TrEMBL record:
The modification 4-aspartylphosphate is found at residue 50. Keywords: Kinase, Phosphoprotein, Transferase. It catalyses: ATP + protein L-histidine = ADP + protein N-phospho-L-histidine. GO terms for molecular function: phosphorelay sensor kinase activity. CDD domains: HisKA. It comes from Larkinella humicola. The lineage of its organism: Bacteria, Pseudomonadati, Bacteroidota, Cytophagia, Cytophagales. This is histidine kinase.
Length: 523
C-alpha cells in the first residue's frame, strides 16, 4: 500500500488517482501526526511525504518513521515546491528519504519510481519470509540433530551394556560405533573381524545394504588371543525413517557351545537313526517270520484237528448208536474240536491284520447284503429281524471292513436273549468331526455307523475290556466265542483311521458305533 502525506487535499487527490490507475492501493494523511498513527497500524511499501506542513514538517516525520522497526523497509519520497535548495535535498536524504522530488512532479517519473520502490519492498518482504523460514528449518534440523544425538547416545549406552559384540553402521556401510567386546576379535573399531575362509559374507551383505533388508547369518570369527575360530550368529537390522534406512544396528552372538552341542546331537541322532533302521529291518523280518510261523502252525494244527472231527463223527455214526452216555462224551469232544477250529481261524485272521492293504471306494450296501447272505441260515433259525438303512460309499479296505461288520452282526445274533428273536438295525449319517457325538452334516468328512441290537447287553464299566483280545464278559457254557472278534474289529478300525465304541445296559441291548473317514489316502 502507498501512503500520501500532504496538508493540502487538492495535492493528495491527483496523486492518488494517478497511482490507483496503476493498480496501487493508496492511503492518505493530512498531517505528520496522522501519518505517524497510520504507520504504526499499517505496513506501507512507499510513503510520499510533503516537506512543508504545519506542525511536524516532512523531515521530522521521516526521522520519526525511521525509528519504527515496523517501517524499516518502507521507502520515503519527499515532495517539495519551495525547499529546492541542495541543503534541503541533503537533509531529506539524511533524514531517511530515498528520493527527493520537486514540484511540479512528472507523473510518469513518479509512477516509475513508486513501482521500483514497491517492487523492492515486496522483494525485501519475500527475503524476510525466506529468512524466517530458513531460520525455522535450521531450528528444526538443529532439534532433530540434537534428538538424533541423544538417541544415538542412548543406543550406544544400550549396546555397551550388551554381553554380545554390538556395532552400528552408517547408511554408506561405514562402521560408526562398536562396544568393548568388539576388540576381542578386531584390532580397531573400523576393521571388521576376521572370518573363516568359508564364511565370507561381505559381498552378500553389500546387496542387503543396498536393499535395506535384515541380514542374518552364522559365521566363524577368529579370536585374537587364541587364534581359534568360534561360531557366532550375525544379525544386522535396519533402523528406518519414512521407509529409508538411516542407520544399521548389528550384533555378533557367540553360539559356539550351542553349535558344538547341536553337532554332537546331530551325530547321535544320525547314529541312533541308523540303529533304529537296523532294528526296524530286524523287526520287519521277525514280523514276516512270525506271520509265516502263524500260518504254518495254524495250517498244521487245522489238519489233525480236521481228522479228529471226521473220526469222531464216524465213531459216533457206526459204533455208538444207542449208547447215550458214550455219544454225550463224544459230542463234547466234537464241540471242543469245533471251538479249537474257530480259535485257530480267529488267531490266523488277527495275525494277518498287520499286513498292508489299499483303500478303495466301497459300497457298504452291497457289502452288507453279501454278509447277511452268509448269515442266512443263522438268521432263519433264530428268526432274527435285520434292517439296514441306506449306507454311503466310503474309502475302505473291503476285506477288513467286512470283518468288522461280520463280527458285530455275529455278536448281535449270538448274544441275544433266550426265547427272544434278535432285532438288529444298522444306520449311518455323515458328521462334521471325528467324534462319537459330532453333529450331523450333509457335507461331513466322516461317517457315523450305528449297529444296534436288543440282546443281553453289558455293563459299560467293562468298556475297556471288550476290545481286548481273549477278553470275555460271558461264560463259555452259555455263549460260544473266542474273545477275538471285537479285538479284530478294533484293530481294523484303527487301520481305517477310525473309531469304534459301544453303549449298552444289561438286558437292554447294545449299540456299537463306528466313525469312519469318507475319503482315505493310500500311503
Amino acid at each position: 500500500m502507498i501512503l500520501i502525506v500532504d496538508d493540502r487535499p487538492e495535492n493528495i487527490l491527483p496523486l492518488k488517482k494517478i497511482l490507483e490507475l496503476h493498480s496501487f492501493s493508496v492511503d492518505s494523511a493530512e498531517s505528520g501526526e496522522e501519518a505517524l498513527k497510520k504507520v504504526l497500524k499499517t505496513n506501507y511499501a512507499v510513503i510520499i511525504l510533503d516537506v512543508q506542513m504545519p506542525g511536524m514538517d516532512g523531515f521530522e516525520v521521516a526521522n520519526a518513521i525511521a525509528g519504527f522497526s515496523k517501517a524499516r523497509d518502507t521507502s520515503i519520497i519527499f515532495l517539495s515546491a519551495v525547499n529546492t535548495e541542495k541543503k534541503f535535498i541533503t537533509k531529506g536524504y539524511t533524514s531517511g528519504g530515498v528520493d527527493y522530488l520537486t514540484k511540479p512532479v512528472d507523473p510518469d517519473i513518479l509512477v516509475l519510481k513508486v513501482k521500483t520502490l514497491h517492487r523492492l519492498y515486496k522483494q525485501q518482504q519475500e527475503l524476510k519470509e525466506t529468512h524466517t523460514s530458513l531460520q525455522k528449518e535450521i531450528e528444526v534440523r538443529k532439534q532433530a540433530q540434537e534428538e538424533i544425538a541423544g538417541r544415538m547416545q542412548e543406543l550406544q549406552s544400550v549396546l555397551a551394556s550388551l554381553p554380545q559384540m554390538a556395532f552400528t553402521i552408517a547408511p554408506d556401510g561405514r562402521i560408526e560405533y562398536v562396544n568393548e567386546h568388539w576388540f576381542q576379535y578386531s584390532v580397531d573399531s573400523t576393521t571388521f573381524p576376521q572370518t573363516h575362509a568359508d564364511d565370507d559374507v561381505c559381498p552378500e551383505w553389500e546387496n542387503y545394504l543396498k536393499n535395506g533388508i535384515e541380514f542374518t547369518r552364522e559365521i566363524r570369527l577368529k579370536e585374537l588371543t587364541t587364534g581359534d575360530y568360534r561360531y557366532h550368529l550375525l544379525r544386522i537390522l535396519p533402523i528406518k525413517k519414512q521407509g529409508v534406512p538411516v542407520r544399521w544396528v548389528g550384533t555378533f552372538t557367540d553360539i559356539h557351545p550351542q553349535k558344538l552341542a547341536a553337532d554332537l546331537l546331530e551325530q547321535k541322532v544320525e547314529a541312533r537313526t541308523k540303529e533304529l533302521l537296523i532294528k526296524n529291518l530286524e523287526l520287519e523280518r521277525s514280523n514276516h517270520e512270525l506271520q509265516q510261523f502263524t500260518w504254518v502252525v495254524s495250517h498244521d494244527l487245522k489238519e489233525p484237528l480236521r481228522k479228529i472231527q471226521i473220526l469222531n463223527d464216524l465213531i459216533k455214526e457206526k459204533y455208538l448208536t444207542g449208547n447215550v452216555e458214550a455219544t454225550s462224551y463224544l459230542d463234547r469232544s466234537i464241540n471242543s474240536s469245533a471251538r479249537m477250529s474257530t480259535l485257530i481261524n480267529d488267531l490266523l485272521a488277527y495275525s494277518q491284520l498287520s499286513t498292508p492293504a489299499l483303500f478303495q471306494p466301497t459300497d457298504l450296501n452291497s457289502l452288507l447284503q453279501e454278509i447277511l447272505a452268509d448269515f442266512e441260515d443263522v438268521i432263519s433259525r433264530s428268526k432274527a429281524v435285520i434292517t439296514v438303512d441306506p449306507l454311503p460309499v466310503l474309502d475302505t479296505i473291503p476285506g477288513r471292513i467286512r470283518q468288522v461288520f461280520q463280527n458285530l452282526i455275529s455278536n448281535a445274533l449270538k448274544f441275544s436273549k433266550k426265547e427272544t428273536a434278535p432285532v438288529i438295525h444298522i444306520r449311518a449319517e455323515l458328521i462334521e468331526e471325528k467324534e462319537v457325538d459330532s453333529k450331523p452334516s450333509s457335507a461331513g468328512r466322516f461317517c457315523r455307523i450305528v449297529v444296534s441290537d436288543n440282546g443281553i447287553g453289558f455293563d459299560e464299566k467293562f468298556m475297556d475290556r471288550i476290545f481286548v483280545i481273549f477278553q470275555r464278559l460271558t461264560d463259555r457254557a452259555s455263549y460260544e466265542g473266542t474273545g477275538i472278534g471285537l479285538a479284530i474289529a478294533k484293530k481294523n478300525m484303527d487301520k481305517h483311521n477310525g473309531l469304534i465304541t459301544a453303549r449298552s445296559r444289561v438286558n437292554e441291548g447294545s449299540q456299537f458305533i463306528l466313525i469312519l473317514p469318507v475319503h482315505q489316502v493310500n500311503e
